[in-house]
Amino acid sequence: KIVVVGSTNVDKVLNVPKYALPGETLAIDSYQQAHGGGKGANQAITAARSGAVTTFITKLGNDEDGQAMVAGFARDQINVDHLVTTDQAQTGQAYITVYQSGQNSIYVYGGANMELTAADVNAQADVIAQADRVIAQLEIPLPAILAAFRIAKQHGVQTILNPAPARELPAELLRLTDVITPNETEAQTLTGIEVTDEVSMLDNAMAFFSLGITMVIITVGAKGAFYATPQAHGFIPAFKVKAIDTTAAGDTFIGALATQLDLDNHNIEDAMLYANRASSLTVQTAGAQNSIPTRDQIVAANQK
Ligand code: ADP
Predict the structure, then answer these.
(1) Greatest Cα pair distance in the chain
(2) Which residues are involved in binding ATP (predicted)?
(3) CA nearest to 41, candidates 121, 139, 132, 123
(4) How many Cα atoms within 13 Å fall on the side-chain side of residue 299?
(5) Which helix (H) or strand (E) holds 254?
(6) pTM (predicted TM-score)
(7) 68 CB burial (10 A radius; 0-12, 13-18, 19+)
(8) Ligand 1 centroid to residue 167 C-alpha, Å
(9) Which stretches does DSSP call E strand in 38-162?
(10) pLDDT 10s per residue in the chain (304 long)?
(11) Distance CA 227, CA 4 (A)
(12) Is the peptide bond before 143 cis (omega within 30 degrees of 0)?
């Protein structure tokens, strides 16, 4: 049983030929209205598609975007009974411009996500207390994450923090974290140690262990991912695939890993391989939530 506490965004994607300079008007090639996105939602969807019993705690506006997102969560069999809505802000939105080169620029309107309070989370204490793991990211206010992790720790629920987007964090939040899953930039932001090779990844892990964290996963894009516990560590290379759009790669990795840790009797290497395969499928399709694979697709890709 997994509870995800995090953000929901509606992604509005513009396919553009080049950067528009201030004051310039440009005709664009195409746009895609309203794909589902947001780190929290992406991770919840990954967990659900991999077969975890998944509850998502997130805050939405009372608007059409919010309703469309809820309908999508329900189609993915996510428990939507613990969602919260607000009249104070609209559902979060990300405006993504994708250039012909494949690079992108993203503007995020946090909206309702930024209204998620500790009180909102405390009102969902029962479902958190009954979970096996709770996962959070940094696209919602810190007091909401702290509230979730405090409840989790009181009830022996494992806490997984995906410290994205990169920012410094209060000591209490790191103390409440069991598993941390940064990418290279996020790891360096928190430890001050640059990620270059496996030795520097282990140095990062040691820095996190000294804070009481017991499992460290560092994802390094097309190179793969590193794991460390106080007992063991290793590097799992990424699968060699033709990446089209890496949006949600990290989210897929984390949602899949958490699910496998749940179902796989905590065998971390097997869980890493599963997560690696899952995210290698996500990068081969454009978009965020539409590119996240199901367990059947991941298993089938492993048998090829
Ligand atoms: P984030 O998007 O959070 O920075 P990463 O870019 O580190 O996350 O990617 C997360 C995981 O997705 C990687 O550890 C890897 O398993 C997989 N991945 C990312 N990019 C590729 C790629 N080009 N080819 C294959 N797998 C990839």
Answers:
(1) 57
(2) 183, 219-224, 250-251, 276
(3) 139
(4) 7
(5) helix 249-263
(6) 0.94
(7) middle
(8) 20
(9) 54-57, 59-61, 84-86, 92-99, 104-109, 133-137, 158-162
(10) 999 999 999 988 888 888 889 999 999 888 877 788 999 999 999 999 999 999 999 999 999 999 999 999 999 999 999 999 999 999 999 998 888 776 778 899 999 999 999 999 999 999 999 999 999 999 999 999 999 999 999 999 999 999 999 999 999 999 999 999 999 999 999 999 999 999 999 999 999 999 999 999 999 999 999 999 999 999 999 999 998 888 889 999 999 999 998 776 668 999 999 999 999 999 998 777 889 999 999 999 988 7
(11) 21
(12) no
Instruction: Tell me, rounded to whole angstroms, the distance of Cα 292 from its chain centroid.
Output: 12
Q: How far is the CA of 247 from the centre of ligand 1 (A)?
A: 9
117 annotated ligand-binding residue: no
| Distance from the alpha carbon of residue 223 to the mean position of ligand 1, in angstroms | 7
Say whether 251 is catalytic. Answer: yes
The amino acid present at 150, given as its one-letter code, is: R
Which member of 251, 262, 264, 296 is catalytic?
Answer: 251
Choice from 276, 279, 292, 302 to test ligand 1 binding pocket (greatest atom count within 8 A of CB)? 279
Distance in angstroms (rounded) separating the CA atoms of residues 89 and 85 = 9
